[in-house]
Design brief:
about 375 residues, alpha/beta, 3 domains, seven-stranded mixed sheet, 15 strands
Length: about 375
């Protein structure tokens, strides 16, 4: 078992000549992912532990780093590996998956591109995750975000609550058709402290549409929640605007959202009853079309204008294609294009992706 950062780096050095050349196992400060005392495991960094102990995931990381050669400065690659192996595993792994996706598609790209305030909405400028060149010569900027989304926030909230109630289980039930903003309010100091106090006074507390329940720890616990893809999309239509500071002013911009079952709820992974199909298309439609008359400001622009700078949304499933007991869901990539975009992209622009992944990708223009 790989329990530490140094052990993980040594594992990566065994499977990749690039990692060997970096020699990071001898230079980066060690970190402990899990403590094993008296037969009990206490996790300090479960995300890093889980990825580190999966050979298929390590192979994906090695392939991503290979794809980054000559596309990203060596120092920046080493910094990204540093983040991957210590406390920022989730975000760094998702970024690496996107680079692997581009490499597998044979698409030319440059990673970590500095942009000025004249090029992005951020008034101070920003470094975006990259630029790609499509088969027809179009240059498209992109940024990558881990799409842990609602379930990831709920997991964090549950873990924090259980620290407040030692020996108890905290169950979060009800309808998970809740906005990210509402969950963040519960994680912030005032919302969290009030919720804890209410749970000390009652074993059952509601924060619509969620229900919080406290019970003694048991060998088997049954918890139930519901989720509706259309309602979930409606509650979170503003989600892509959270990253508007990265939107580019003068050319096409794609927001790449990486889905992985270890960070996302199962509904976003397995596409049971077409949940993923319905949710991703509806969220895209709302992100593109529902702000047309909205003058509220975001990054110095009315929302109506900012939404036009989002040329498309990419939903990328990061589960390994091979080497696991469970197959990767198909399609693993969904691309939705904004027909109202100021810098419009069309399906034909992604011919090289469709050729590389003929049965694993869908590209759709939202009219």
């Amino acid at each position: 078992m790989i329990d530490t950062r140094t052990d993980w780096l040594k594992k990566l050095e065994q499977i990749s000549a690039f990692f060997q050349a970096y020699g990071l196992s001898a230079t980066l400060r060690d970190a402990v992912y899990v403590e094993r005392l008296a037969g009990q495991a206490k996790f300090r960094d479960a995300d890093a532990f889980n990825i580190a102990n999966s050979d298929p995931h390590n192979d994906m990381i090695a392939e991503a780093v290979r794809a980054l050669q000559n596309r990203m400065p060596t120092a920046a690659i080493q910094n990204l590996i540093g983040e991957l192996t210590s406390r920022k595993t989730y975000g760094a792994f998702c970024e690496l998956l996107a680079y692997k996706w581009l490499g597998d598609a044979g698409v030319d790209f440059t990673a970590q591109v500095a942009m000025t305030s004249a090029e992005v909405l951020n008034k101070n400028g920003s470094t975006i995750d990259g630029k790609m060149t499509l088969a027809n010569g179009k240059t498209v900027c992109f940024d990558v975000k881990g799409f842990g989304f609602v379930a990831h926030k709920i997991k964090i909230l549950q873990e924090r609550l259980e620290k407040e109630f030692p020996g108890k289980s905290v169950l979060i039930e009800g309808a998970w058709n809740v906005s990210i903003d509402a969950l963040q309010d519960l994680l912030d100091y005032t919302g969290f402290s009030t919720l804890v106090q209410d749970l000390r006074n009652s074993a059952l507390v509601k924060r619509d549409p969620l229900t919080f329940r406290i019970q003694d720890r048991r060998p088997v616990t049954v918890s139930v929640h519901e989720n509706n893809p259309l309602k979930l999309a409606e509650e979170n239509r503003e989600y892509p605007l959270r990253f508007a500071s990265q939107y580019t002013r003068q050319g096409p911009f794609l927001l790449v959202l990486v889905i992985h079952p270890w960070f996302s709820q199962g509904e976003l992974h397995q596409n049971f009853a077409q949940f993923v199909d319905v949710f991703t298309k509806e969220l895209s439609r709302l992100a593109f079309q529902s702000f047309q008359n909205d003058a509220a400001p975001v990054e110095g622009l009315p929302r109506a204008e900012a939404a036009k700078l989002l040329s498309g949304l990419v939903f990328l499933n990061g589960w390994p294609a091979t080497g696991t007991d469970a197959p990767r869901p198909r399609p693993f990539c969904r691309i939705f294009l904004n027909s109202l975009a100021a810098h419009r992209l069309v399906r034909e622009d992604f011919a090289s992706f469709e050729a590389a992944f003929p049965n694993d990708i869908t590209v759709e223009e939202i009219p």
